[in-house]
Structures are given as structure tokens and as C-alpha cells.
Fold each of these.
Amino acid sequence: MSNSASQNQLALAKAGVVSEAMQAVAKAESRPAEYIREELAAGRIVIPCNIRHSSLEPIGIGRRLKTKINANIGTSSLSSCIEQELHKLAYAVKFGADTVMDLSTGGNLTATRLEIIRHSSVPIGTVPVYELACRNDETEIDFSKESILKLIQAQAEQGVDYMTIHAGIRPEQIPLAAKRKLRIVSRGGALIARHMSKNNCDNPFYDCFDEILEICAKYDVTLSLGDGMRPGCLADASDEAQFAELAELGRLGRRCREANVQVMIEGPGHIPMHEIEMNMRRQQELCDDAPFYILGPVVIDCAPGYDHITSAIGAAMGAWHGAAMLCYVTPMEHIGLPEAEDVRDGVIAYKIAAHAADIAKNIPGAQSRDDRISEARADFDWEQQFDLALDPEKAREMRKRALRHQENPAPQAQFCTMCGPKLCSMRVSKEL
Amino acid sequence: MSNSASQNQLALAKAGVVSEAMQAVAKAESRPAEYIREELAAGRIVIPCNIRHSSLEPIGIGRRLKTKINANIGTSSLSSCIEQELHKLAYAVKFGADTVMDLSTGGNLTATRLEIIRHSSVPIGTVPVYELACRNDETEIDFSKESILKLIQAQAEQGVDYMTIHAGIRPEQIPLAAKRKLRIVSRGGALIARHMSKNNCDNPFYDCFDEILEICAKYDVTLSLGDGMRPGCLADASDEAQFAELAELGRLGRRCREANVQVMIEGPGHIPMHEIEMNMRRQQELCDDAPFYILGPVVIDCAPGYDHITSAIGAAMGAWHGAAMLCYVTPMEHIGLPEAEDVRDGVIAYKIAAHAADIAKNIPGAQSRDDRISEARADFDWEQQFDLALDPEKAREMRKRALRHQENPAPQAQFCTMCGPKLCSMRVSKEL
């Protein structure tokens, strides 16, 4: 679908108009279009859809809709190749990513981003401060208003659907972060904090926030207010720095909606299980129930190589208690840049977390896939089980592996190699 | 350590005696020995330690102690090799399994079990009904009292530390299971239910429960009361059949403790996230807070190939809300028999779940490993990070993979390949 400049979704929703995008979301979510419009007007749903992103199929993000997941891709200074990023994009979408963020920091950023947007049917997000940092050498990032606005304007023109802007990190929070074990682990947050400290100034994104809103309203870029102060370990979770910034994000969120800019709020990070529900409630209160877009959270710090699992636990609980979108974490987290197989592992772990939350939240129809695969199990219909699996290829490969030692492997056999035919509970209980 | 026949832990605890095993548990858990004795006497902690298992290092299982995990190994009719099972045993213990169950159903069961017990420092559990079923042909399992008691006696003499006995499944529950999508998915449960249905009789394990208790008290075999009625899909979760059996397990548990037999209760299965806490509370009420030993639970049905993840989510929440031990689920669940690498994936996923729960439950000292690895991160001390990781080998391999495209890979570099040196938040925030 295509949009014209007059199609700012929030402005339309406030004016009582149901747009094509709202209709598409209503259909995908099995909800009335008017419900989507109302929630969008109230700021509880966003539909990131830059008017320039012509290949986009719009999706809705909000805690009363199906939980969405995001996959991060992107080059680094150590590894950059557009083809490889397009491969990761295709892989992420194939396995179920609802949005993709291009976090490239190496190679030709503009060309990479353009290719990703052109090839993507899902909303594309970016973190403009990365490009700012990559354009200059390490110690002299140009944080001038002109530089920031020019960059955001250029990315908006390219068709970026949502942008992470760390406008909520403020000078008074820096002493709070200094008390932490890991200080600031957000890249954007750390760069801005250093700039504020060195120059004894406020956050440059905060300073030109009104001008940023003008650009975003024009192209209908959704803002994702970044959590520069997200905790980077359990010891730093739910601390003063985190919540001081969250309150600021709530205030900025109100300014976004007033300016007809759709807005999400980003969240932690590293949070122990028993603090997750509290964190979700706090965000809803401080940020007027704007969609909460969380990274994990990982629930333990000591499993590098398995952080797609440590964080899927936190993400499932976070979405159940109110997060609207989950940013995936791959097994490579805390180690290095993810490759295509890591992207797959991360996406599937997050599809699991999102689906578990949708069932716990009683999203209409969420459990029907599970009910159908269970019926296929009862019927020993292996093909149907694979077709309904979140990752059919993996399930098929594993079944093949399980059967490889059998002399006459019968893939449709009425039992699995776990129990064998004699002890198959499914066979036995059919005789009841 | 060795035990004599007079060293029945529960009898000793009731008599006010602190045994060597209780002292060892107290030390491992950093609790007073008298506390362990009191909880054991009250039935809230068990220490599975058959007096014949001479290589055992005893552990305590209870919801106020560190969460324990079990790994299932064992042959099947399609794949049986003692060496391979010993390899799985070593692998499971190396990666952190606190107990191991030998669920063998193929090859020489007696010899396999004896070798596993002989090589194991962790408690070994079994499910005697499997051996009963394997000894005879499919339709004519010998469920006579003599056959059952002889088998349990033989396994007790071999040194089995705990046994799953499905004594709680009763004829009146079968019509309740008939309403289900997946009826009975427990192998033991299905075999016993078929026997009861065909012969119009009660559960043979229930019928000779007092005699079973005599044997178990003599060798100090802990009973793990099996949940033959555990739900096998979300649609069957938390239903009448499940809770009717749970109430029966609570009554049987009281008989165990009166007969000086330590007892755990087994639990589901497939449970959606929003019903997990309720399930844990229900067990505590119905079963006098006897240790709850749960399988998963998986929280969605549609991710075959990834059930170590779907179930780690449920296991973490279950342990947080009161489960004492978690039976692992491997990626092969619902597909086939796990091999060594599946055992590793399952064990690590469950170490993650158990550790996350211990932090959420505020088990003393649980978070110190996380705090230390976070400090190592702040210091760019990669070796220390690997040493503190739940799976150091995996973390090291992945770091090597991340560095392989670099010209001069420096494993101790002050950044990771995720951000590269310029955008490393840890470096930048050190400058604050």
C-alpha cells in the first residue's frame, strides 16, 4: 500500500478517520477497525508506516494486540556486506520477525539502509545516533542541531518506519548511573552521556525534540524513545537511573502525541523475574500506556552463549504483563555480532515468548495453533505437526536425525523414537 | 559416604538426629544443619540416598533450598548401548544435572542401571513400571503384586535413590481423561490405566502401596509419586483428571511420611503461563508442601525442536512459585530420544531456569555469580567471564567464531564484535 503526506495515522485517528493501514491491522488482529482507530488515537497502539516505505505491509503494536517481535540486523566496522544483511533480513522475516531494525555501523550506511527498506515488507527501525557516531571519529561526534536534524530528515526520506531516539537521558541522571556496576550499556545512551559530561550541556536530542517531531509527523515516522539508562546487569536493575529516565520518557511521549507523532517507549534490559511485572506496571503508569518495546529482559547474567533463552523467559513474562513488542536477543549477545543462524535462533526463541504471552493474555484465537498441533499429535500426523510448528524445517531435520539409526525408518510411524511402539502412551491410551 | 540400614533419613530426622547426609546438605546450602533436619522431618525436604548407593554425594530437594534439576537418560528399544548412556550421564553431570533418571527401556536393563548407579555421584531415579512393561510382551504386562514387589526390591537393592511410582491414578479418573484431547501422555499412567480398564480393577501399585513403603523404608528409597494424569497439551491443562490425581497423591504422601519414606510429588506437563502459579499453590495445599518435582511445564505446544526453551520458561516460573526440582526437557521432546548434545542443551536450559528462580526467590548468595560475571564484563576480562559462564566451552567457541573474520584477533580485546571498539558502550561509559 502507499500513503500520501496527508496520511499521518495519528492525525487521521484523532480526526475519526479509519485509514487503510488501520483496516489492515484490524483484519490481521481480528478486531473492529474502529477499535484500532480509537486505541491509536489514544496512543495505546502504533502503526509504524513511513509514507515513503512503499513495500510495507502495516502492523499494529499495542499490548491488547498480538505480541510483536523485532529482530536486529546490521553491519559493524568489523563485518559489513549488504548481501549478508539482506540475507539476515529475509531469514528474520521468514522465521517470523514482525519488524526489523537496521543497526548498521559499518560500510555504506545509506546504501545498506536503502536496500533493506526496499526489500522489506515489515517496518524498518533505526537508531540515528549510530550513523552520527560513525560519520566522525570517535572523540568528535557532531551533535549539533543541524547535524542531527539533517540526519533524521535524510533517514525519514529514505522510508524508515520508526527511529530510536535517546531523548530521555538527561544530565541529572548521570550521577545515578555512576553508582552502577555497569554504568550505561546502551550505545546511544553512553555516547550522549559522554557528550553531556564533556560539554556540560543537556541532551542534544532533547534540545531539538520539537524539530525532530516536525520531521516525524511529516513522514509519519514513529518514535521509539530509547532507554539509554537500561540496566546492563541484575545488580543495576530497577534503580533510580532507570526510573528517572522512564519518567522523562513518559513526558516526552505526551509531547509526541500532541505533535501527531506515534510513540513507543523502550525498556530493559536485565531484570530478575520477580521485578518484571512491577516494571511493566510502572511503564504503563508513567507513560500513559504507550506501547512498551522491551529488550529481553534477560533474567540472569551468567549464561553467555544462551542469552536467547535467558531473555526469552523475561520476554514471555514481560509481554504477559504488558509489553507490546519484544526486541530479540540472540545467542551471540554479550559475545559478538549475530550471523544468520543466530538470527534464526533469536527469532524463534522470541516467537515462543510472544506466543506464550498471547495465550496467557487470552488474545482471541491465540491457542488454536496449539490445539491443532495437539490434535495432529493424537493422530500421529507427523506432516501436520511439522506444518504447524514454529520452525517446520528444524522439526523435520530432527525427526530425520531421530530415525537415522532405524533399519526401516517410517517417518509416518505411529510412535516416536522417544518411547518406541511398545511404550507409546498415545497408542496405549487410544485403547482406553 | 556410606549408610547402614539404620540410617533412614526421615526416621533419624524425626528422632532429632542430624545425619552425615543432612550435614552435607546443610553445608552445600549454607543453612544450619538443624534447619535441614527440621524440614526433612516435616516432609518439606528430601535427601534421596539409597543406603546401597556408595558413590553418592547427597543433595537436598525442597522449595526453600536451591532449585535442583534432573536429566533423563536411558536406552530405548530402538537404541541401546551402555557406553552411550554412561557418556550421557557424564555429560549431564558435567553440565550441572543434580539428579539423573535412568528411563531405559531397551537392552539389558539391570546391567545398564547397575553401571549408571556405580558411575554416579548424583542420586539416580527410575520408573519401575517401565521395566515391568519391557519384561513382557505388549498386551500382557504382569501387574501381579509379587511381580511388582520383586522388581522394586531388586531395584532398591541395586541402589536406586528414588523411584517414580504412579500409585495415584485410580479407576474413577479414567472417564475424566477420556474427555481430553490427548487423554494420558504419561507412559506409566497410560499402561496402568489400560490395565485397570481391561481388568476392571484398581491400580496395582495402589493396592500394594504398604508393601512398597516397607521396601523403600528399608533401603531409604525416596518415592516420587508419578503424575499419570499430567496434561499433554494446553487444552488439557489444569483439568479435573489432573487435580483428582493430585489430591490422591497428597493422601499417598501422608502415608509415605508415616512409614518413614521420603516423598516428592510429580507435576505437569503442559501448562500456560497464567496457570503456573495456581498449579504450584494447589500442590502445596493438597500435598502438605512436599517437594514438587515438575516436568517443564512447556507453555506452548507448537514449537517441536525447541521444547527446551518452551519448557524453560515454564520451569523458571514454576520454581519461582514453589517447585523444588525441575525435570529437564530436551530439544528432542515430542520428536525422539535425546542424544548427548540434546542432553547438554536441555541441562543448560534448566540450569538457566533454576538459577533465574533462585534469584527471584532470593535464595541466599544466588546472585553472586551474576554479580561477578558483570564485574568481569566491566573489566573486559573475557577469561573470567567464560569461567563464570554456565557453559564455558560454548561461550569460548562462540567468541572464537565472532573473532574469526578479524585480521588480528585479540581474544582479550577491550570490546566485542557486536559493537566494535568505537561504539562500545562499556568503553565509552568508563570515560564518564
Amino acid sequence: MTNTQVTLVQIDNYGPWTVTPEPRREADLQTMQSRLYADISQFVGNRDGYTFFTRFDNMIAVTNGLTMADHELLQESVGNRYPVTLSLGVATGTSPVQALSDATTVVQDAGSAQDEDRRECLEGRTIDDPHRTDDDVQIAHFDVVDATGQYTDELNAFDSFIQIEQGYAELMRHMRHAHDSLSFFVGGDNVIVVCPDLESDDYEEAIGHVETAVDVELQVGVGRGSSAHDAGFAAKHALEVCRADGTRVELA
Amino acid sequence: MTNTQVTLVQIDNYGPWTVTPEPRREADLQTMQSRLYADISQFVGNRDGYTFFTRFDNMIAVTNGLTMADHELLQESVGNRYPVTLSLGVATGTSPVQALSDATTVVQDAGSAQDEDRRECLEGRTIDDPHRTDDDVQIAHFDVVDATGQYTDELNAFDSFIQIEQGYAELMRHMRHAHDSLSFFVGGDNVIVVCPDLESDDYEEAIGHVETAVDVELQVGVGRGSSAHDAGFAAKHALEVCRADGTRVELA
Amino acid sequence: MTNTQVTLVQIDNYGPWTVTPEPRREADLQTMQSRLYADISQFVGNRDGYTFFTRFDNMIAVTNGLTMADHELLQESVGNRYPVTLSLGVATGTSPVQALSDATTVVQDAGSAQDEDRRECLEGRTIDDPHRTDDDVQIAHFDVVDATGQYTDELNAFDSFIQIEQGYAELMRHMRHAHDSLSFFVGGDNVIVVCPDLESDDYEEAIGHVETAVDVELQVGVGRGSSAHDAGFAAKHALEVCRADGTRVELA
Amino acid sequence: MTNTQVTLVQIDNYGPWTVTPEPRREADLQTMQSRLYADISQFVGNRDGYTFFTRFDNMIAVTNGLTMADHELLQESVGNRYPVTLSLGVATGTSPVQALSDATTVVQDAGSAQDEDRRECLEGRTIDDPHRTDDDVQIAHFDVVDATGQYTDELNAFDSFIQIEQGYAELMRHMRHAHDSLSFFVGGDNVIVVCPDLESDDYEEAIGHVETAVDVELQVGVGRGSSAHDAGFAAKHALEVCRADGTRVELA
């Protein structure tokens, strides 16, 4: 059984801030939010977690191995270096979707995303070390078969993007509703999916579904570990096998 | 008539680099590519352009006002500070899609995105100052009506994201095929669209289409200017009017 | 004759901020201030200026080629992305020391560095384009002769640093008082000096003075240009000649 | 007794890289090295260590609490995101100067700072957890008495800097030779000193020495802890007492 620890990272009162006293330069907002994401990705990543930019104002992280004290330090460090602050909700469970749902609830219960008085709340609970296992996290790393040859070098950059985006949109919805999984676009033609206990057949089914629905061919490497990095790293290696052998699904 | 200058920013041979000699830590890749995007966004943005992260390995920028020398400096500066290099294609035209298509072609003609020998190519042409006008760029800034109340504070963070993502995916495809426009998700519930000469009715139609197709309610502010910043800033102010008055389409 | 445009960049009310409500984590302050410096260095640098970190809370830049509008944009962009704001003073003159002194005065006249009510002031004047010449800026780039062989590979890292620091401290004081020049340590064993119209003999004299005073052997390349980058780039090339030929002073 | 763990961070073959194939833009080098420092400061800092930029190409960190695995991860992460790599030497001891000296030796033994073949070496040893104590690190945080009133608001920015720099240069040399301590300028008018077991009298003596030698008045807060952050945070609080009560030396 998996036991995924999920953290919702929400910028406090971000929407109003971006237009107060008047709209701020878009390039500055883009720079600030992508650097904030990069910093969180480093902090969580060098503790073997994964952070996904998602909407940027709401980011989702897999934080197995991080304590509440780590979360508190992240909040403090961001508060010392950025013009915005973070609220964090943490929850765990066998279903990543349920864990995220619980993490969201504790933040929502603390106040609205646009509540001026809700600042730097930190809610929820982490998995204590003694209860962590090598099977806690399952990560699937998908990419598009020969994206460069089929799209990047052939279509204009936006139509390539539409193709990849469509494959992602379809996969994201399907994995969430059919397989209780959270899918995130991570750049290029890569999608990383945080999964419960899924089998090879589930991935075959998902790849088939996406190909039928939007005619985008995917391949996937799947890994398991005590942290997102361990599981994800195994998944990347498995995906290398797909690329080398032309297979569609490889479990580490 | 609009005359949009579009730049395709492509990281040279990025895919192979990310797995050579073996897969690199995902958190490092995420950090590196989002900081690279942030730097490009600052460089282009403080010359009044807009840069969109798109796929991160292929970014798209609206660069009216930037010269080829500016593009060259961006390439040199990135080459001095990152482990990867950039190839740039620049083109202009009354249709943003056609301009991007031309910008893509000049890069593709220089070599494959995964060609080891294609490094830091810079191709294409910019609009000379004497030919620039205050009408060159049209930007539409969309967001979701009451996203916080309807989604962020109600659904779990991933289902909110799916809703917003669906609205974006539908808008992106529709604006590209029905209106020759390039749509980019820029975080939160915001989508910025680079348009040719469109009228109020076109935006009404697009909003109606998205609502019918995926039941997501959008509002939009539209601006015009000699640069992406000028047009986009006017669009942001127009969107503030939508938010204040409850209207759906506002032209600056 | 040189005509150096100098900008004083002062973080508003920084000291009090670092200890309010209680002392902030040192590592966060170090990170924030060095990234702020890096951003200013990029903004000014990709307009061909030089920025020196100096004390970090007070930075000094050579900004020939930057307009007051550029300075305003820098202030706005920093204000949008950092928890602190900047006040800027700009002045010009044949003596870099006098120019900096004037730039400092206009900021001091606007209020104390620790005045809560003095925020984002922008004072002074720049050189209008028609008045700029190819001789406006003179830069001397010094380094220590065989620093790696004599110090870095021989002494412990701190004693190497003390040696280099002593050479810098002596050079800085001497160039300021004997030659109206501003000297800045820029990392490694490099010191960049912003000079008025100085001759080869002046540099010979300065090198002799430092060698006698603290027994540190320096070499220097000197360049001239319409901007700090043009002058500094010529100086770097001249210094390469010293390194290759074993000469002590080279004028581009 | 203190037991300081010191890490020497040396950029591999940096000097040659900065001028290959020809000198790189100074602003890019300044940006790259200050951001690299900022990243190391975050990585070490959020594990309760302190990093000092020192010469930028050779940085010194107090790393009590960091394991060799942490050091390896830092190397890997920097190698994935920067155009340069790091070599690290780690050593421990009751004298910070001796520890740094040992850390330097293991790096020097691995090869010259400008040896093309010495890349990412990691040498030395850390203190095992069971041997760590709450007294391992002693930090003294100095600043200049009323620097703003006496210098920043009175002298031009460079002459203020010269005053502060002179105080620092004198303190650095004295603390190293008289008290086996490592002193680092950290911005503004602040100097952080990594000390062995020193008493109140030692600090009184040092402050007196600097005042006599260069007429700069210092005050100092001193703290002790199991990590640089714990000791340094206590020192910052003690320095606040000096500021409030007008005392010169405060031990936490």
C-alpha cells in the first residue's frame, strides 16, 4: 500500500496583491512566482520531495520525509525573502487524491485564499519516521513517444504545445477519475503522476485511453520508493528502458 | 492592423541533456528551467515584452521593441550563467500564429531541437523602429469569474486546477483555430492571449464557446499598444473593470 | 575627459527591517541581499553598466547609458518582487568620487537611510544621449600576480583571503585619495576601479605603493569606452596581455 | 570546548573559465557567482549552517549538522544547475582556523584550484551526531556603533564603505592572529566571527584594538550553540541588547 504525504502550498491573498494598488507588471509577477516555485522545489527537492508548480498560486508537493518543522522553516524562509507569504496544509493517505483533498480542507478551514487575515497558516500532520516504508510513494513518469520527431521539429511551436497539452489534459482527468492519481506537466513532453497502488494494466489502459481520445501516444516508467525522489528516480530509469526498447510501460 | 513580433526560445538539445549521463534529479531540472524562464521573463519584460513558459524547453515571447542585438545579448548572458544554451527564432506579422509559425521554421531549418551541433542559432528579423506603431500588439487578459469562491475555496486543489485547466485547454484550442490567437496560462486562473485585430464580438463568442463546451465562465479585458506590456497593462486595467462592474468583455 | 554616471542604490530602512519584529535568519538575509544584487547587476549589466555589491545595503553602479526611466523601472521591478524597496541617487562628473558624493547627497537630502517615511526616492540626473562620448568611462581591472600559485594553492583559504583583502584595502584607500577613483572587489583576486583620466604612470605608482605597503603584487589592464561594459571589456582584454606577457600595466 | 565543522567550497577551475574562450561579461560573472553563493547559503542555511561569500570563488561555511551525504547532494545539485562545479573540503576542530586549514589542505591535495582534471572532489570528515554538543559553535556578531548616524547619512557612500572596510580589515587580521577566529563581512556594517572558546575580555580587547588602530567603534553580541544558526541567532539577540543598552560586549 502507498502512503503519500501531500502538501498544498498556497500563496496568501495572492490575487488581490497582484492588483494592489494597481495591476503590477506581468513580467515581474511571472518572474516572482516562478522563482518562488524554484525555491520551494529546491527546499523540498533536496529533502527528496517533489514540488509541482500547478497554478503557481497553489502548488502541490509530495513531501514524504519532511517534518512539520521543515514546513515551518520553509514558511519562515519564504517570508524573509519574498513580498508574499505561504500557507501550508499537509495530509497523508493511500489515495493521493484523498490526501490532497484533506490537505486542502485544513487550509480552507483556516480561511479563504483571499482572506487578508489568514497568513502563514500551517495545518495537518506528517508521517512519523517509524511509520515510513520503502513502498510509500509510487510515481509514474510519462512522456510522448518521439515528441521531437513528431511535433517539435514538425509543427509550429504552438501546435506542438497544443498536442502535448491535449495529451496532458486527457491523462490528468483520466488518471484522477479512473485511478485516484495526481498528474502534473513538468515541462517538455513530460508528465509526472503521483499514484496509489496501480498495476501495469492500469497504465496500459490509461495510455490506450489517451491515444483513443486525443491521438497522442504515451510511454511510461513507474517507480516505487520511500520518497518522491526515490520513486521518481526509479521511474525515470524505467522510462529510459521504454525509450531504448520501444516498450510502452516499464515498472522499475 | 496588428504587427506582432514573436520569438521562439528553444533550449538546445535539452531532452538528451536531462538524461546524460543518467537522469538528473527532477527537482534540479524544475528549479533550473523555472529560473531560466524567470531570467528571460525579466530580460524581455524590462524591455516591455512578454515571455510565456509554455513547455519550458520551448518558450514563446512577444518581443516588439527588442532588436536582434537584444536577442544576441540574451543568448550570451544565458550562455554565461546556465549549463544550457538557447536558440532563438524571430518573426513578425499580422497573425500571431503565422508569426510564431515563421519563427519556428527558421529555428527548425537551422537544425533539430535535439541536434548536438545546433547551438545558439539566432534567426529571423525584427520590426525596425520607424515601422513600429501604437497598434502593433493586441493582448486579451482572461480570468475565471469568481474562481476563488467557486473553486479554490470549494474544491480540492487538484479539482480546482482541473476546472481551470479545462477552461484553458478549450480556450487555447478555440482561439488558435477560430481567431489565429496564441493563449498562455500564466498562473492562478489567468490566461493571456496574443491576438490579431479582434472585435468585442469575437471575445463574446469565445467566452460563450468555452462556457458551453466545459462550463467555465470567463471574463476578459483587452488592450492595444506598441508593446506587449503597453497592450497587456491596458488589458489588465480593462479586466479590473469587468471585476468591478460584473461585465464580461471590456476593451480599453 | 571622463564623464562617469554613478548611481547609489540604497535599500530603504534595511537595518531595522532585518531585526523586526526580531532578528531574521542570517542565511535568509544573505540569500535575499545577494539575489537582489544579482538582479540589479543583470538589469544594469544588460544595459552595459556595472554594479558593485559594496556593502549590499548600499550598492554603487556605473550607469552611463541608463536613463532616469530605466532607474524608475528598476525600482518598480524590485518593489514588485522583493520584501524591500530601493532609493536611487544619480550624478555625473569627471571625478568618479565627486559624482558618487553628489549621488549620495541627493539621497541623504531625501531622508535618512533609516527613515521609515523615505521610500523609493529617485533623485539626480543622467547624461543625455547627445552628450555621451566614447571616452566617458575609464575602467582599470586589477588582479594579483599568480594568486593561485602564491596563495590559493599554498595558504589556507582564510590566509589567502587576508592577503588579497589587504591588497584590496590598500589599493582602495590609495586610489581614492591619490587618484579620485572608486575601487571594488569583485571576487577571486579581482578589483575593478572606476577612474578619471589617469595615465600609465599613475597605475605604475599605485601598484608600487601597494607592493611596498603590504607586499602584494598587482597587475592591471585599463580600458576606455562610452559605457562601463565597453571600458571594462577593453580592460579585461588588456589584463589578458599582462597575464600573457608578464607586464604590469597595459592600456587598451 | 568548541568543535567547529568548517567546509571550504571552491569553484573548480573558475579563473580560466571566466576568460575562456575570451573574457565573459563582468555583469554575468557577478550575477552567476552571487546567485551560486545565494543557493549554497540557502542549502547550508536551512540545515542551520552559515555560508560566507568570502572571495566567491572560494567560500567558507560552518556546517555543523551537515553530513557528507548533504555535501554530496549540494555538489550534485549545483552541477545540475550551473555552468561550473564545486570541490568541497570538510574538517573539524577546536580552532576554526585550524579546521579551515585542514579543510583547505584536503582540497589542495586533490589538485590545484586551476587543475582542469580536478572536478567535484569531496574530501574530509564531519562530526557524527553522537559527538555533537550544544557548545560546538561560538559565533560573535559585530557591528559598528551608530554606523548610520556617523557614516551612512554623513559621508559619501564610498567613504562610509572605506571606514567600515577598515574596521573589518583590522578586526579580521587581529581575530585571526590573536584569537584563532575567522571573521567575515556580511553586509551593511556587520561582521560575523567564528570563534573558539573566547571570553568577554577577549572581545573587549579586540574592540579596543580596532578602535585604537583605525578609530572605528564596534559592539558585539556572542552566542553559543550546536549549529552556526543556533549560536548566531543567540549572538544577534545579544547584539540587540548592546544596541538597546549601549553596552559593547554581550554574551547570550
